[in-house]
Amino acid sequence: MVFCVQLDCLIIASQDLSITAWGLDWVPHVTFIGHNGVVNSLHYCTKANLLISCAGDCTIRSWDVENCKAVDCVHTEQGNPPLCLGGKRNGHPLFSFSAKGVDLWILTSWYTLHSRLNGDEGAPLTQILVSHFPPYYPTRVVCVSADSHIRLVSARTGEVLTSFKTEEKILCAAYCLHKELLLALTEEGTVLRASTLTNPAVLIQTWKGRGQGPWLSTDTVSQRIAKNLPVPGPARCLVLYSSVTDPARALQEWKSLQEQGGHSQTNDRCVDHLKNKFWIIIGQNGGCVSVLTLDNGKVLQRTHAHNSQTVTAMQVYPENSRLLSSGEDFTVVVWRVHPNAAVCLTRQRTVDCSMPQLYLAALELQLALTFQEPHSGSYGLQLFDLQSTKKADFHHKNAHTAPLTGVCAIPGPNVFVSSSLDKTVRIWNKRNQLIWMQQLVAAPQCIAYSGNGQLFLGINGDLYKMEFAQFLPDKYKQTLHYNNFKDPPSALPIPKIKGTHSQTE
Question: Could you report the per-residue pLDDT of 103-122, keeping only the tens digit for each?
C-alpha cells in the first residue's frame, strides 16, 4: 500500500489483482484492474501525478488516480518479475529490483496537451489540418469540432489565433494560408469562405449549389454518357489544391495581407495569377468531382467517377500533383492534377477496395487502404502498390481492435500512422509491417502529421501533440525532415473585431 498526500487517499493492492484508492472517509475513489498477476509494489510519483505498480505478470503500469485513468504499461523481462518499486517522491528516476538485478526508469510523456479547445465535456474534434510551408510562413493547425466550431491554432505555441462558428453542421474544412482564407463545407453542400485575418474569422462569401445541376457540353463527359448519369448533387467533401511556382510573389502578397488586416479580402479581386494557382476541389452526390476557383467559386471542370455513387472522402498532395477520392462504390480513384492545362483533372487509376474508405493516405507509389472486419474485431491498413497493382501482406495479429479514427502518411521515413478507438496509435513501414504501437489514455478522435516530426491528435475535444520521432527506430529517424516552427511577428496577434461582412452567391 501507499498513501498519496496530494489526493489524501490510501492506495491498496488486493489479492484479487485490483488496486483501489480509498478516501479519508473510507469510500473508494477508484479501482484499477489491469494486472494479470499479484501486485508486488506500489509507488506514487508526485512530480508526474502518477501511481506506479509492478506485478508478477512482469509488467509495470502507471495510473492517473485523480482522473481515474490507466496511462501506460511496460513489459519487463519474462520470468523475472519486478519485486519492488521505489524512488524520490518528487522526481526521477524510479528504480525496480528483481531476482536478477536493479533497473532504473524515467517517466516519459508520450503526448502532451497543446491547446485546450473544448475540454472533457466539449464536442469532439472531427478533423485536424496542418498548414506547413517553412521557413517563411507560420505553421498553423485547423481544428474542426463536431459543434461546427473551427479554430486556427499556432503549431508552435498552441495559441488559438482565430475561430469561426456557424449554426450549420460542418462536414469538413480547408485552409489557404497564402490567402488567409478558411473554407467550410456544410451538410447542405454549401461552401463558406471566411477571412482569417481577424478574430473571429469573418464570413466573406456563401456559395450555394456550386457544381450542381445537369451535365453541360463544357463538362468532361460526352453527351451520350451524360444521358445515363445522375445529375450532380450537393458536395459531400472538400479539399484545397495549391500550386505555387512563384514563391516570391506569393510571400509578398501574404505579407501585404498581414499589413492590411481584414479589409482587402472583402473586395472580389482575383487571388490567382498565371503562376500561382489555388483551387477548391469538391466531391459530390452522383459521383461528380468539380474544380472551383478560390476567388469566386467559378466551376473550371466537372467530371464523373465512382460509378455515379457519392464521393465520400478526398485527400490532396499538391507536391505530387495528386488527388485521391473514395466513393460509396468501394473504390479509390487516383487523379493527376494539371494546374497549367485546360483540363484540371485526369484519372490515372481506379482501385477496388471491397469496402468503404473513410480515410485516405498515399506515399509516392503506395496507397494506404483501410479494412474493417467487425465480426473478427480486426481493423487496419493494407498497402497497395500503384505501379505493380499488388497489395502487401498484412498480419492480422497486429491489427487494431476497434474502428480507425484516422490515417496519415509521413514522408522521409516513408511510414504510415493509424489511430483507433482502441486507444492506440500504430506506425507501419512500407512493407506493411508494424514497427511501433503506443497505448494512449483515451481514444484519439482524429490525427494529422505536423510536417516537423510531430503528430497532432484530437482527444476529448482538445488538441494534443505527440513527439512522433521518438517512437521510430534509428534508421527511420535519420530520414525525418525537420523545420523549426516559425511564427513571424507580422502574423501575430490577429486583431479582434465585432462586426461581420458576408456575401451570398
Answer: 888 776 678 889 999 865 67
For the segment 437-465, the average pLDDT, to the nearest whole number, is 90
Q: In what order do the strands lie in the sheet with 125-131?
A: 125-131, 140-145, 149-154, 160-165
**Nearest Cα to 306, choosing from 240, 367, 350?**
350
DSSP 497: -
**Mind listing the pLDDT tens digit for each residue in 288-324?**
999 999 999 999 999 999 999 999 999 999 999 999 9
Predicted confidence (pLDDT) at residue 331 exceeds the cutoff of 60: yes
**Beta-bridge partner residues of 45:** 50
With contact defined as beta carbons under 8 Å apart, do 413 and 428 qualify?
Answer: no
Grid cell of 82 as nine digits: 519486478
Query: Which residues, in sequence order, are bridge partners of residue 292?
Result: 280, 299
Cα 505 to Cα 208, 238, 296: the distances in Å are 7, 18, 9
DSSP string, 113-176: EEE-SS-TTSPPEEEEEEE--TTTS--EEEEEETTSEEEEEETTT--EEEEEE-SSPEEEEEEE
pLDDT in tens, 198-228: 999 999 999 999 999 999 988 988 888 999 9
Q: Exposed, middle or buried by CB within 10 Å (0-12, 13-18, 19+), for 162?
A: buried
Asked if residues 176 and 278 have their Cβ atoms less than 8 Å apart, the reply is yes
What is the SS3 assignment for 277?
strand
Are 369 and 351 within 8 A, CB to CB? yes
Reply yes or no on whether the pLDDT at 493 is more than 70: no
Here the cell at position 490 is 507580422
Q: What average pLDDT does range 154-161 have in this prediction?
A: 93
Count Cβ atoms below 10 Å from residue 273 Cβ, excluding itself.
Answer: 11
Q: What are the angstrom distances between the C-alpha of 133 and each of 91, 124, 305, 360, 393?
A: 39, 27, 32, 22, 35
**For residue 8, what is its C-alpha cell?**
489524501
Alpha carbons 481 and 19: distance in angstroms, whole number? 44
Ordered strands of the 378-385 beta sheet: 361-363, 366-373, 378-385
* Residue 489, pLDDT score: 45
Q: What is the pLDDT of residues 371-423, one digit of tens each?
A: 887 777 789 899 999 988 898 888 888 899 999 999 999 998 999 999 999 98
Distance (Å, rounded) from C-alpha 465 to C-alpha 224? 52
Dihedrals φ, ψ of 248, to 5°?
-65, -45
